[in-house]
Structure prediction request, 134 residues.
Amino acid sequence: MPARYRESLLEGCGGRLVVTVDRDHCLLVYPLPEWEVIESKLVNLPSLNKTARLLQRLLIGHATELEMDGQGRILLPAMLRDYAGLNKKAVLIGQGKKLEIWDEDTWGDNQQLWLDSARADVGELPAALEELSL
Prediction:
């Protein structure tokens, strides 16, 4: 973990993290207390809803608790590294209450796609975003 995240992670969760997969083929990294909130919401989704079950299987089923070592490193299991296509270089992206880990090449390819999409007409925003002031 980069130094700018390491100290707050040690203070906020004692370096205990949960890593899981994301539908965009990156890894999501949550401080343990934040993950517990997400997990609770996922568990309480309606079990007869196919999309809810898929999210539960994807996120909860792949959730792996890890602990930072004395150098602020985490050891990602091979299954998670394979899912995200992590080979040699990875990119760590801060996303508020979570972090994302991307393969460097995949991040670069997607970043250009997202920038192009942002320039195009993206359609209607959800109501909560329409009220957001940046």
User: Anything to note?
Assistant: Helices lie at 3-13, 32-43, 50-62, 78-84, 104-119, 127-130. Residues 30 and 98 are 5 Å apart (CA to CA). The mean pLDDT is 88.
